[in-house]
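tokens incoming
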């Protein structure tokens, strides 16, 4: 396919998969249960954090996190007590365990009380054409309080050549304005043009088959290459093609 044909093909797939029914089988369903902005942010951040492995398991375990917080994530983050934190220690999702979750709650409390919240941190450190520096700065702030060393692996860092799939996915959820109602668009000061596709095994494999990506590893360098290709197709909303690449890989076995 030439560029025009490729764009037409992918635009069609975006329309096909960027639909409310997408929510039913995706971790984005967890933050969609909330209406308060901060609840959406915390539910989304925690759900995105454990978004690797079997999708059904991801959703089930994200549900467990919300239940452990009384289904009021922002109130829990800001007003938890020691006994409530101890209940979190039973949680486990693959290598993300209760110790990690307890620290995440403490760090989120610090971010909302000392840094004006998640949106403020990412907005402050955005660069002219990317969110990768902001993700790196976010990790620094996230671990500025005392923390278990093991927990650092659960927040990615683009400066270490990570594709930061899960945080880029979260940023798509919060920053992208979506007429179909899948993505929230609740962060108004970060334009979608700066967002990056959540690069994983599915989107990476499809991107390579479509000659959007040549690098074999799904790392930070590959993300830069894919960014350039998708922004060439749509400079204003390049990350919308996540729906096409992911849908082709997961639902069509492309």
């Amino acid at each position: 396919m030439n560029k025009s044909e490729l764009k037409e093909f992918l635009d069609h797939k975006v329309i096909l998969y960027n639909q409310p029914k997408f929510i039913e089988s995706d971790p984005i369903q967890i933050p969609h249960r909330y209406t308060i902005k901060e609840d959406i942010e915390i539910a989304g951040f925690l759900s995105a954090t454990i978004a690797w492995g079997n999708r059904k398991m991801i959703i089930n375990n994200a549900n467990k996190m919300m239940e452990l917080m009384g289904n009021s994530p922002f109130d829990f983050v800001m007003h938890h007590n020691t006994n409530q934190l101890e209940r979190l220690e039973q949680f486990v999702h693959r290598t993300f365990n209760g110790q990690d979750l307890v620290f995440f709650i403490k760090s989120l409390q610090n971010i909302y009380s000392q840094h004006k919240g998640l949106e403020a941190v990412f907005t402050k450190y955005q660069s002219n054409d990317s969110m990768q520096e902001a993700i790196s700065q976010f990790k620094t702030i996230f671990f500025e309080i005392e923390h278990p060393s093991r927990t650092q692996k659960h927040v990615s860092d683009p400066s270490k050549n990570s594709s930061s799939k899960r945080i880029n996915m979260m940023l798509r959820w919060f920053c992208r304005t979506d007429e179909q109602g899948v993505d929230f668009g609740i962060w108004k000061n970060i334009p979608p043009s700066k967002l990056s596709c959540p690069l994983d095994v599915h989107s990476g494999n499809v991107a390579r088959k479509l000659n959007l990506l040549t690098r074999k590893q799904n790392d930070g360098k590959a993300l830069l290459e894919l960014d350039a290709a998708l922004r060439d197709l749509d400079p204003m909303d390049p990350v919308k093609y996540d729906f096409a690449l992911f849908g082709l890989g997961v639902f069509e076995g492309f």
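note: The first helix runs from residue 3 to 17.
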